[in-house]
């Protein structure tokens, strides 16, 4: 007896054929590439840019070309840990040692632990961790998850609105479809004033990925825990893990990842060895 395929299966196949045709069209539109631009523009990469621009090839091409220009000048793959380690001393932003239930890399942000004033260095630190998160994605996985812990946050130690806007623009314009979900855990009421300004910088797709979680709101907690194993989540984020940020150990991990990054991109930029507990290095 023959069985007809389900409509959902057929629809999936049709959507994949459509996506492949659009990727091919975009690749033809951007023309020949070489060096790191060629390495960057994988089929999966092109697909992310297409998704970000609703499969409009012309808009996707413009977005991708802007990113390639940005990468050629900012050189995010050339940033090394010893250049930004001071930004990470308090653990205000780091890659978690666990993944979410989908195998995605997790970045933990603790804006209440802000320790520096230079917006340029703070952005450089963020870009470094975004590149590092991508470097540590498992095969077949394109996205990361953010956990934002508002313990200790106040308007006095919040980042300037300009930096928040630049952060959002960098994430949306140069790392499209890299963010799967962002949980804002227990933000204080005063954060609402800051959020009313910041949310206007978010496009619709990014805005829908931002979820507020309050410990006393069972529904919001359940949504977050559907993404993470209780045993992995730190206690301050409602989980059972007693893990704490260790800057010395994290620095050692980042130096090893710098070597992996240099090998991947074919960089000859020196990687500084032997980080001490302050994140400094001896060369």
TrEMBL record:
Residues 81-245 form the CRAL-TRIO domain. SMART domains: CRAL_TRIO_N (SM01100), SEC14 (SM00516). It comes from the Eukaryota. It holds the Pfam family CRAL_TRIO. PROSITE patterns: CRAL_TRIO. This is CRAL-TRIO domain-containing protein. It comes from Stylosanthes scabra.
